[in-house]
Amino acid sequence: MTESYDHSDTSFPLRGVFRDEGPRRGDDDDAPVYDALGIGFGPSNLSLAIALDEAGRRRGRQPRVRFLERQDEFVWHGGMLLPDSGMQISFLKDLVTLRDPTSPYTFINYLHVHGRLIDYINRKSFFPSRIEFNAYLRWVAGHFADRCDYGDTVLAVEPEGRGDTIRHLLVHSRKADGRERRRRTRAVILATGGEPRILPVFEELQGSARIFHSSHYLSRIDGVPLPDGATRRPRIAVIGAGQTAAELFLDLQSRIPTADISMIFRGQALKPADDSPFVNEIFNPDFTDFVYGQPETQRRAIIDEFRGTNYSVIDTDLLTRIFDILYQQKVSGEHRHALRPRTTVVGAVEQAGEIVLETLDAATGLTAQEPYDVVILATGYRRDRLETIMPSLAPHLTDGTIGRDYRLATRPGFEPGIYLQGFSEPTHGLSDTLLSILVMRGHEIAQSLLADRQTTAARA
C-alpha cells in the first residue's frame, strides 16, 4: 500500500546511563550539554520522544533531550489536510502500537479519550481521515510540549573539540523574532522530513503567487486571483502523477467548480498503487533487516522492484473517481478537465497575469504553449538537509555509511552521534520515509543512544 501519507507529562532522567548531574558545563562556555537534540518534531522524532520517555520511566531517570521545530506548532502535512483525504496506512501503525499496544499514546486510546471509539468502530475502516490522524499526532505532541521549542529554525550543526577529538556538537538556531541560540549536545537526530522538490524549469517562478508546491496548497490556493467564471473559466494545471496530484485534481473539482483542470505528467498513464497483502510485507519492520543485510546492488534492485508501492502511483479508489469524472464529461459533451500523459514541461514564464507552460509531447515530439492561472507542483520532496545544515561535519564523516541503528559512520576521535530519520531509503528500504517503521526505528535509535551514553559515562 502507498504509505507516504508519501511528546508525557512528567520527566524522569536515566539513572546510571544519563546521570543526574544537573546542567553540564561545555568546553568553553556555560551552556548545558544535552544528551541528544532532535532537529524537527514531526512523527519520527515524536515516536522517538515516546521511546525515550518509556526508557526513562523504566530506569527512573530521563535523558536530557530537546527537540527543535521550525513550525510554530505541531502540524503534519498542513498544506494537504484536505476535507476528503484519507490515510493510506492502518491506524494500527500509529506512533506506538506495534511496540506496545498498551501505551497511552495509541490511536485507539486517543479515540477513547475523545469519546469517539465506538463511533470509529462503527465506521468499519482501518483508515482514518488525514485530518483526524493529524489531530491524533497533535494530541500526542501536546504531552511532550515541554521538550520541544517551536518556531526554532536550525541554521547549522558544527563540531566542537580540541585537536583530533570532537566531544560535542554545537547546534545553532534562530527564533522567528531573530534571536539566535547555540546548544551543545552529544548527539543529534535529524528528522526534518523532505524539502519541496522544485523542478529546475520552475525555479525562477518561485516568487509568483500563481505557482507553488503542493505542500503549500491550502495556504495558497484561496489567495490566487482567478477569473470569476462568467467571462472565462479559471485554468489550473497540476504537475505530477502520484497520490498527491490525484488528491489535488479531485479537491479542485469541488473547491473551484468553475475551473478547467489539467493533470500533466510524463508517464503513459496513471498507475495504481500495489497494496496487496504479500507486497505490503515490504513495510514490515523485519524487512528492514533483510534490506540492510543485502549488498548495495541488491538493495537497489529491491527498491526498484517495489517502487510501484509508493512512487508515482495512486490508490485505486481515487483512480476510479477520476476516470468517472472524465467519463461523465464524454456523456455530457463538456470537456473541461483533462489528463495530459507523455507530457514534459520544458519551459515556464509568467506574463500578463498567467503562467505560460511550454510542453513537449513525447509521442509526437511537438511542443505547445498553454496559459494557466495556477500551476501546482505535486513533484514530491528531496532529502538533502544533511548537506545544507551540516557541511562542517563532512571532514569527520567516512564514506556516508549509515549503520543499522541509523547512525552515520564517523572517523576515529569523533564522539558525538548523528542519527538520521527518513534519510536512509537506499540502505534501509522503501519504508524509511513512511509511517510504517516509525515505532521500531524510534525504539532502535533510543536504544543506540542509551548504549552510547552508557559507554561514554563508563569512560568518564
Automatic annotation (TrEMBL):
Biased composition (Basic and acidic residues): 17-27
Cofactor field: FAD
Spans traversing the lipid bilayer: none
Source species, domain of life: Bacteria
GO molecular function: oxidoreductase activity
Entry keyword set: FAD, Flavoprotein, NADP, Oxidoreductase
Pfam family, one: Lys_Orn_oxgnase
Pathway, per record: Siderophore biosynthesis
Chain spans, region Disordered: 1-30
Gene3D superfamilies linked: FAD/NAD(P)-binding domain
A GO biological process held by the record: intracellular iron ion homeostasis
Family: Belongs to the lysine N(6)-hydroxylase/L-ornithine N(5)-oxygenase family.
Protein's name in the database: L-ornithine N(5)-monooxygenase
Species in which this protein is naturally found: Methylobacterium bullatum
Gene designation per UniProt: pvdA
